[in-house]
Task: structure prediction
Amino acid sequence: MPASYDVAAIGNAIVDVIAPASEEFLIAEGLAKGAMGLIDEGRAEALYAAMGSGIEASGGSAANTVAGVASFGGSAAYIGKVAGDTLGEVFIHDIRAGGVAFDTPPLADGAATARCLINVTPDGQRTMSTFLGASVFLTPADVDAEMIKAAHAVYLEGYLFDAPGARAAFVKAAGIARDAGRLIAITLSDAFVVERHRDALMAFITEEIDLVFANEVETMALFQTTDFDVAASALGKIARIAAVTRGAEGSVVLSDGRVETVKAAPVAQVIDTTGAGDQYAAGFLFGLARGRPLAECARLGHIAAGEVIGHYGPRPQTSLKDLAA
Result:
């Protein structure tokens, strides 16, 4: 069956609050620079009150990726859980306005819509504090089988490994995709996710995944080594395709025993690295859906990542289709 969507993604539906911050602010608030930490609703309210003036934008790693796919001119769909509150309405409006199909029913009772409080230091590094809220209440019942079957690639967000129900949704989606002959991809999301769920992630990648996205820190964390080459080689042995980003050094793509290094796109000024990995995945997945060689998929990923780090916010503000052209 021909694919109706280039990518269907499952992830944490989150609204991002992004503000500039000093190194002193991170220390005062006990935040580990460059990391993502989970917080409860009370801490989210207190940290929000202490943060500087910023912007609010719909986010969530996989949601950012499908927004990027749509910006390339691709077709994309998304599965994620929000609450029936104001932030939930903001998220639904934003993702649909970006051209992404989204029909997951909101959580009727309970937790509020998730939000990620992102403090960006002058060097462009982002430190994230995430209240997961309604997003973790995603269950297998929310997986739209027809949507999964209709996608060239199914993209799974590693952050959801923290919630048992959401992990079960992953397993269901992967099974549907496998039976339909679709490509299954996952992003490792964060080194802390890897450290919490290393064995489960390793087994899931080995048994279910065709394509792994990771950065160099996550890759080394997965194989418990400080030697990047050793970690990348090991990842290449358990994944049919692996795309590992290395910041300004570009990315490494591994497939069938081959290793290709692809340079990053030039960037005039790094403003905010939020969403860089998400947009790299968008370009890569879009390229794969259109039958491009892996190195060209990586170059599309770097174009998207280069665009997003030049401004605040995790989603493209300039047409990626135009930039790629």
